[in-house]
């Protein structure tokens, strides 16, 4: 009888320590969430998902004039001059959501200053 209780005690300790060592190797939920958020941010940086405000779409000379005018008025906001045949585009900012881009567009009064052609455009979709 004493041998059986000693055997079961040993077996219990063995199973308990094995379970504890396995549990220590597994990541916690917060670590997994942090890791997923980091991967999502890296993906977004690489592929450029988000929204920008497009000020102009057309000829190169006009696009460069529009870019210079914008840089004088708003030096803190980054501008992007791109060429997609057959047109040049001036886009500004990088916003996570369309709502955020619309809010900036309205707060800065960009339609009044740069014309009715100012729109919010999605990136990478």
Automatic annotation (TrEMBL):
Keyword Signal assigned: yes
Position of the signal peptide: 1-23
Keyword list, A-Z: Signal
Annotated ranges, domain SPOR: 50-119
Family annotation (Pfam families): SPOR
InterPro entries: SPOR-like_dom
Protein name: SPOR domain-containing protein
């Amino acid at each position: 009888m004493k041998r059986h209780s000693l055997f079961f005690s040993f077996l219990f300790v063995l199973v308990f320590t094995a379970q504890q060592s396995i549990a220590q190797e597994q990541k916690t939920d917060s670590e997994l969430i942090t890791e997923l958020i980091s991967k999502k941010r890296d993906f977004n940086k690489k592929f450029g998902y988000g929204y920008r405000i497009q000020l102009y779409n057309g000829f190169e000379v006009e696009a460069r004039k529009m870019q210079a005018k914008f840089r004088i008025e708003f030096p803190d906001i980054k501008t992007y001059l791109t060429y997609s045949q057959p047109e040049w585009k001036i886009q500004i900012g990088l916003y996570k959501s369309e709502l955020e881009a619309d809010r900036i567009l309205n707060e800065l009064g960009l339609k009044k200053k740069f014309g009715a052609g100012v729109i919010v455009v999605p990136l990478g979709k």
